[in-house]
Specification:
Elements lengths: L5 E7 L4 E4 L5 E14 L5 E13 H10 L5 E12 L5 E12 L26
């Protein structure tokens, strides 16, 4: 048995944009920031932000593009995937399988905003 799962809660670093591939599949890429806070041995507050590249496919790409913007708080579950860059290095992506909006309803400009994206099945993901 193996497990390849990432669970993250953070804020989007930009507005998501959906692109359509030649195959007809739709993909949205966006960065998510997670921040770790602690006090060092001198009692000083420290902070470290890590950026995660998220990949949403098809219906999930449409939803995240429609309802999320820079700063939106999301809960995300997905698999970790490495892909090679044109320069020989590697990118690490989180292929999103389930997600939930965590912003309060009052902060949204849309009253019809769904509360979670996890109702969309893995069958929508082309991998």
């Amino acid at each position: 048995m193996t497990v390849n799962t990432a669970i993250l809660i953070g804020n989007l670093g930009s507005d998501p944009e959906v692109k359509e591939l030649p195959s007809g599949a739709r993909v949205a890429n966006v960065s998510l920031a997670t921040t770790e806070r602690w006090k060092d041995k001198n009692g000083e507050r420290q902070e470290k932000t890590t950026w995660h590249d998220l990949v949403f496919w098809n219906q999930q790409a449409d939803i995240v593009t429609q309802y999320c913007k820079k700063g939106s708080k999301l809960y995300v579950e997905g698999s970790i995937d490495k892909r090679k860059s044109d320069q020989g290095g590697y990118f690490t992506d989180i292929k999103v399988k389930n997600f939930q909006f965590l912003d309060s309803k009052g902060s949204s400009s849309s009253d019809s905003e769904p509360s979670q994206g996890s109702a969309f099945a893995d069958e929508d993901i082309p991998f």
